[in-house]
Design brief:
Strand order of the largest sheet: 1-8-5-4-2-3
Largest sheet: 6 strands, parallel
Structural class: alpha/beta
Distance between the termini: 37 Å
Number of domains: 2
Order of helices and strands: EHEHHEHEHHEEEEHHHHHHHHHH
Bound molecules: 5,6-dihydroxy-NADP, zinc ion
Helix content: 40-55%
Strand content: 5-15%
CATH class of the largest domain: Mainly Alpha
CATH architecture of the largest domain: Up-down Bundle
Shape: globular
Length: about 400
């Protein structure tokens, strides 16, 4: 068991109609002028943006808006947001949408609170010393960005997708109304469930530490999301299933399911970030497409955890050798992905990299992790390439 820091300062306001509390929350956390930052327009179409800005107006809180954060959000818009905040004297950020709008807001927050080029943080050149305070209204259960310390940005030049994490960017509050996720396309709901499970699986498939309580929380979370993803697959309007998945999304990535473990493996995410950067695929779908190949490459080096996962999460019978049980668990997970219409390889994901592109992704991935990374198994560039090839 390893020691750990667990820091989750985000005030969570959860349930129907909670977006109506936005102005009070902005005031509570000292916001005097707000940048409302959102994505490609779903919040305009659903009427959420108008309801939120009406609430700010009623409360006499000045604001400016900036939309356009795309999935795999771009650095260019972050620069635009930083300029806008400086020009308008914005002191509080409100991300309304999914991980992309929230991450873009976090990056804007770093850019306003620190001198120099904000990309330096994502390029691991230096560390941020602050971030503008940020609140969130979540419209998709997926990344956990509403409570996490992370943000992931894509630099258009070279299509480099990188994450940066610091406690400064943990949101002050997160408004979570499960009803707001009911307008999601089914594909995005499934992508979200995949991402949520993967955030816990990254922390679960480790070769160090492992606390019983953490494992119990992780396995419970995985079983709950699996069950409710299947319910939403049949009935997307099921409020309780939406709520279970939404809260699971936050708990999966606020650190809870990693306490005592070896910091997590994170290689499925790192490999997916290359796919997201190059092909602009939905993050959850990219994870599903790569996970099976990753799992088959590493499972022998992390056998007790794969066996435990198979039995406790995927309901595999404890019959046969440990390796057989572990492989049945991997197959059961892939079957689950197929049931919720997620891809299990790159072809199903809809991308067809050339040999050169596969090599480039492996190279960029290795550079991004400083050479090698992983806890279930440490992967170098050669191993990354082998996994990409196996996922074809
Ligand atoms: O842009 P709009 O028009 O809002 O549409 C979005 C987008 O097309 C749509 N959407 C969201 N809520 C909706 C809705 N459509 C209808 N009704 C709603 N209620 O869904 C699409 C996906 O949205 P996006 O914000 O991109 O999804 P997600 O939350 O999955 O975020 C993905 C990004 O977050 C990063 C990913 O790499 C990716 O760039 N991640 C961030 C993490 C973090 N900050 O902690 C961790 C993750 O591992 C991940 O890497
Ligand atoms: Zn993720």
């Amino acid at each position: 068991m390893f020691g750990f820091n667990y820091y989750t300062p985000t005030k969570v306001v959860f349930g129907k109609g909670t977006e109506n509390e936005v102005a009070d929350l902005v005031k509570e956390f000292g916001g005097k002028k707000v940048l409302v930052h959102y994505g490609g327009g779903s919040v305009v179409r659903s009427g959420l943006l108008k309801r939120v800005t009406d609430k700010l107006e009623e409360a006499g809180i000045p604001y400016v808006t900036l939309g356009g954060a795309v999935p795999n959000p771009h650095l260019g818009l972050v620069y635009e947001g930083i300029e806008l905040c400086k020009k308008e004297g914005v002191d509080f950020l409100l991300g309304v949408g999914g991980g992309s709008a929230i991450d873009s807001a976090k990056a804007i927050g770093y850019g306003v609170a620190n001198e120099g080029d904000v990309w330096d943080f994502y390029d691991y050149k230096r560390k941020a010393t602050g971030c503008l305070p940020l609140g969130v209204i979540l419209t998709i259960a997926a990344t956990g960005s509403e409570m996490s310390d992370s943000s992931v940005i894509t630099k258009e030049e070279g299509l480099v997708k990188r994450g940066y994490s610091s406690d400064y960017a943990r949101p002050k509050f997160a408004i979570m109304n499960p009803e707001l996720t009911m307008t999601l396309p089914d594909y995005q709901t499934a992508c979200g469930c995949t991402d949520i499970m993967m955030h816990t699986m990254e922390r679960y498939f480790t070769n160090g530490g492992n606390m019983e309580i953490t494992d119990a929380l992780a396995e419970g979370l995985l079983r709950t999301v699996k069950k409710n993803a299947l319910i939403l697959n049949e009935n997307p309007m099921d409020y309780d299933a939406r709520a279970e998945v939404m809260w699971a999304g936050s708990l999966a990535h606020n650190g809870l399911t990693g306490c005592g473990n070896d910091g997590g493996d994170w290689m499925t995410h790192k490999l997916e970030h290359e796919l997201g950067g190059l092909y602009d695929v939905a993050h959850g779908a990219g994870l599903a497409a790569i996970w099976g190949s990753w799992a088959r490459y590493v499972y022998k080096d992390c056998l007790p955890r794969f066996k435990k996962f198979a039995i406790n999460v995927m309901d595999v019978e404890e019959v046969g050798s440990d390796e057989e049980i572990a492989l049945c668990g991997i197959e059961a997970m892939e079957e689950f992905y197929r049931t919720i219409h997620m891809p299990t390889n790159l072809r199903e994901l809809g991308v067809k990299p050339t040999e050169e592109e596969l090599a480039l992704m492996a190279k960029k991935c290795a550079i991004g992790v400083g050479g090698e990374k992983g806890s279930a198994k440490v992967l170098n560039e050669e191993a990354m390439l082998a996994i990409f090839k196996a996922s074809m």
